[in-house]
Specification:
Elements: H1 2-48, E1 73-77, E2 83-86, H2 101-109, E3 111-118, E4 123-131, E5 137-145, H3 147-189, H4 204-250, H5 256-287, E6 296-299, H6 300-317, E7 321-326, E8 330-333, H7 335-351, E9 358-366, E10 369-376, H8 398-403, H9 410-420, E11 424-430, E12 434-441
Parallel strand pairs: 7-9
Antiparallel strand pairs: 1-2, 1-5, 3-4, 4-5, 6-8, 9-10, 10-12, 11-12
Length: about 450
């Protein structure tokens, strides 16, 4: 990160320096051009005030400006464009100047100017012409370096200055980067310190986000560790029982009258082990972020009726009656997940009920939202335990859960399914009164 910041700062510095140099060069050359034009105007007016160009009959041999004015070319043009005098060349060799833009402008407006570039000399020639009272035109001209020549002549000094500035900026960028990142580094080191306050208020959102993510990561790591430990323990219990019963049967240490009981225990623990593995697989599938279930329009009442028919035998075995009531309600969801949700809630209501107890499944629509309620009059859940019943492997009555084949993952699966469907789950329970679980679907 530091290297990226340093490289970007250096890049911005170089770009700013080059842009500044080019901009300043253009500005100063523009000012230089204005000054050259102003000087030519002054020179022309001074020459106009001399007595050399008062009459076209003046003997041009008497005009000698070659030594009086250094690097200034003076040309005197007649009304027809004929060159009467030039201090730099013979008039016989010069062509008619009527086609020159500065001469035409001078005849029309009283004065004119032009700039012509010499590619061979890599110079610009500035011309200024003024109309005299006798109708002739006096033109003065001077050569000046082009902007590229000026830039190239100054390029060694400019390069040295740029390198010096870049070196200073690189050092300053390193210092600035270190100073900017230091509070962030200190903040990261103090993520577990609840009393730490960021030095700048602008860092508060980042600090809060990092602390939240750090807490979530730790919580997720602990949950995964606990889940692994719980899975190992839950799998170990039935496997140990199966292994023990099988060892006794294999060693012939069990009488004929007890063998049936041992076989039943092995089967019961095997069924419990299979149910536990199935629930772990389902929970793992729900935990996958890339898992995207297929949603469809489905009838919640029909799904509940199918589940009730499948649970009738389980309820009758425990001497619990089960009742479905309500009305047709359409929701958008995954059919298999919704059936899994209803089965887990109803199975829990049957499993933690008393002989002769009742379980009711209600489907109603309220305020345009479908509501599923599974209610029982069983053992209930203490208020202190209600916040934890949706945790994995958490059981309110561990002895009853194991005796009835519960895995401790049913409500955890329910919570995941509710979250996937953007629904809401509500729990209302009291010991020896019963439990009511309501799921509200918003779509």
């Amino acid at each position: 990160m530091k290297n990226k910041i340093n490289v970007r700062l250096a890049g911005i510095t170089i770009l700013a320096i080059i842009t500044t140099v080019i901009g300043i060069t253009i500005i100063f050359y523009s000012l230089f051009q204005k000054q050259v034009r102003a000087d030519l105007s002054v020179s022309a007016k001074l020459l106009k005030d001399t007595h050399y160009f008062e009459s076209v009959n003046t003997d041009t041999d008497d005009i000698d400006l070659s030594t009086d004015i250094n690097e200034l070319r003076v040309t005197w043009i007649d009304k027809d464009g004929t060159v009467l005098y030039d201090n730099d060349a013979s008039t016989e060799l010069l062509t008619n100047h009527n086609d020159r833009p500065e001469i035409q402008e001078a005849f029309e407006k009283g004065e004119g100017e032009a700039v012509r570039r010499s590619d061979t000399m890599n110079k610009n020639t500035f011309y200024y012409a003024v109309l005299l009272q006798n109708g002739t035109v006096l033109r003065v001209a001077t050569n000046a370096e082009s902007i590229w020549s000026v830039f190239m002549s100054a390029s060694p000094i400019i390069a040295m200055i740029i390198l010096l500035i870049i070196a200073v900026c690189v050092v300053l960028s390193h210092m600035l980067t270190k100073q900017l990142l230091m509070p962030v580094e200190v903040m990261v080191k103090n993520l577990e310190n609840a009393d730490y306050e960021s030095p700048y208020k602008e860092l508060d959102p980042l600090a809060n986000l990092l602390k939240s993510q750090h807490t979530d990561i730790l919580a997720a790591a602990k949950a995964r560790q606990d889940f692994t430990a719980n899975v190992s323990h839950e799998l170990k219990t039935p496997l140990t029982a199966i292994s023990g019963y099988a060892e006794l049967l294999d060693g012939g240490m069990v009488g004929t009258d007890q063998q049936k009981h041992f076989y039943q225990e092995i089967r019961k623990n095997a069924d419990r082990l299979l149910a536990l593995i199935n629930d772990i697989i389902k929970l793992s599938e729900l935990d996958q972020r890339e898992y995207e279930p297929t949603f469809e329009e489905l009838e919640l009442y029909d799904a509940a009726r199918e589940c009730m028919e499948e649970l009738t035998i389980s309820a009758r075995r425990r001497n619990v009656s089960i009742l479905l009531e309500g009305e047709a309600c359409h929701i958008r969801g995954n059919r298999d997940m919704i059936k899994e949700l209803i089965e887990n809630l109803a199975q829990n209501a049957i499993r933690y009920n008393n002989p002769g107890g009742k379980v009711s499944i209600s489907i109603v629509k309220k305020d345009g939202r479908a509501m599923l309620t599974v209610k029982d009059n069983g053992i209930g859940i203490p208020a202190s335990e209600q916040q934890r019943v949706f945790e994995r492997f958490y059981r309110v009555d561990k002895s009853r859960s194991k005796a009835t084949g519960g895995t401790g993952l049913g409500l955890a699966i329910v919570k995941h399914i509710v979250g996937i469907h953007d629904a809401k789950i509500e729990l209302d329970s009291a010991p020896d009164v019963g439990t009511s679980v309501t799921v509200v679907f918003y779509r």
